[in-house]
Amino acid sequence: MNPTHNHFPEGPSFRSTLNTRYRVASVWQALFFSALLIAIISLTALIYDVVDGAFGYVAYDYKKDPATFTSTPLEDLTKEELLTTLQANLSSGAYNKLNNEKAMETRLRGELYTLFLERLIQLDIKKTWSFTESIMRAGAIRTEAAEKYPDAKLEFRSWLTPQFLTSPMSSKAEFAGVRTAILGSLWLVGIALLFALPLGTGAAIYLQEYAPKNWLTGIIQMNINNLAGVPSIVYGMLGLAIFVRVLAPLTSGSMFGVTDTNGRTVLSAGLTMGILILPLIIINAQEAIKAVPDSLRQAAYGVGATKWQTVWHHILPNSIAGILTGSILALSRALGETAPLIVVGASTFISVDPRGPFSKFTALPIQIYQWTTRAQSEFHAIAAGAIIVLLVLLLTLNATAILLRNRFQRKY
Amino acid sequence: MQELKNQFKNFDLHKKPRIGEDAIQGLLFIAGILSIFTTLAIVYELGKEAWLFFGDPEVTLAKFFGTTRWQPGIGQFGIWSLVTSTLITSFIAMLISLPLGLASALFLSEYASLRARSILKPILEVLAGIPTVVYGYFALLFVTPILKNIFGDVVQVYNMASAGLVMGIMILPLISSMSEDALSAVPRALREGAYAMGATKFETSIQVVLPAALSGIGAALIIGISRAVGETMIVAVAAGAGPNFTFDPFQAAETMTGHIARISGGDLSYNTIDYTSLFAIALMLFLVTLVLNLISQQVVSRFRERYE
Q1: Inter-chain touch A339–B173, beta carbons under 8 Å
Q2: Is the dihedral of CA B284, B286, B287, B292 positive or negative?
Q3: Do A306 and B297 touch (CB under 8 A)?
Q4: How far apart are CA A174 and CA A19, in angstroms?
Q5: Domains, in order of start, for chain A
Q6: Least CB–CB distance from A226: residue in B138, B236, B290
Q7: What is the pLDDT of residues A45-93, one digit of tens each?
């Protein structure tokens, strides 16, 4: 009997197809799993690529001989010696400019030493190698460096140093740091949170506890879901049009007597970020409030509490952990967002820390973007360093969120 | 009896006016309605500037949709050079993320044990949490050199293929988690029925569970496309800086989002054709993603009705 398309095979013909069917099934199962394998490999490759860039050999030389400035070996220079050497050899204009940024006497030895290397003997990077290259081909690199750059010193260097974290921006990769960028990022997410957390929680409470089931509520809800899917660069355009341009008197601080800025301030950028994360905070807070059991509400009403008393004394305390967890996740989104900051006008080069809401600013992802798009490989190395800093910050935030969730999560 | 009536006379069961309560409710309502104003502000601001752009006597719809060179500064307004690169990078991204995302969702929902799930799922979540600018670094400095090694010098330093591939990896977790939700929403009875008929696990997954979850997977696909079209940093870093009308994925070409990022990153003065043109592009982006999101929501809500 030939099994036709419409008949289920029986007997021996069934058994003969069975093995094929099982084989097909297991091949496909392997294929499905390999999709996850590709995801794992990609993640590994990405992390490897970043770490690979942040460490490795570097060949450098000095444009001017250190001996022309001082007779003591470089490492033994004291703070005072450095100060007098700098004062003696820098033009008075350049020295005063540095002094205005930060008084020279108050700078640490490390900072002065950096200035010494950067301004006087002018350390110059010839070539950098990645971590893998440095490990696998150490000998070849040494001969290459000796042939091509006979005067240069070869050194294994970590681009991610304590100094990298505490130095401001510099036009030379070897002296650049992320302090300005980290502070800018903190200001940004701080302003965004101050703006979005109360509004987002309020909106979530309204939608879950107060809103009548009518067309308006439906539209609000649908609108929030849609806003969560709007590309971030569109929020940037909104921020540019509203905060930077229309509200310039407010965001530039000219209403409050600040004169030297335009609307492209950390306040504008923070508010733009706040608008961007608002839908995320609302959606997360709604989920948290939804998880509070109805029996709590009924019990509160039963003893004569008003609606707000119920919300304030019972619903909020029971959902605050969930709301905060959601907010932290939204914050980590804001911390990594780059596109809206470019549009709103993050400064391309700034070495002064943000001092208030009306400062110009830069942020970690902006620095990563700028360094990545430079042609020289030493900038790629510091971009990798900055990525590690950003990923560690994000990891910390997310771990906090998970801890918070596990610590305060209540099961009803 | 009369005594009892007198006793209850003093009770007023009417709702008392409470000004504080009403004020709080009003404030909360304002917080709720604010999101509507955000949308209105987006539409108004983008629309206003885009109106100025199209109102410029030099800009005609024929030029906008009929030519292929985009350089508003010198009177070239052919949007296609930006649109094709957006479509090509998004297409490559979906080519990667749809099969991989769907396959991993099938594995996670139909095959993986609880233990395997608890290890595999966080990996996808980490992948979803990495900032896009980091993916841009990865595309430019890892994937592009590999492509150059494989295909040789036809691959330019900035190219759409590398940006598209990495964008696919970025969108994979989104497709995977949305598809997995759709697959797990399929009632268990359908699977049991298939097993009872003697179907293998694979046959059950593909011929029973997958078709039942198709609308949810469709929604994931649409959201994925919307993400790919709106993604900025990967293409800004790796796809190229400068509009280029080409269908060759190994060439550099700027996308709509990449163009906005590059032009607005410079010193842009208000009331110039460069400024207004960016808003016209942003309005197009907003409308395209809005329509895609609305369709996806519609699909999801229909599919929910069927099983709950």
Answers
A1: no
A2: positive
A3: no
A4: 64
A5: 54-166 (no CATH), 179-408 (1.10.3720.10)
A6: B290
A7: 999 999 998 888 888 777 777 667 776 766 677 777 777 777 777 777 7
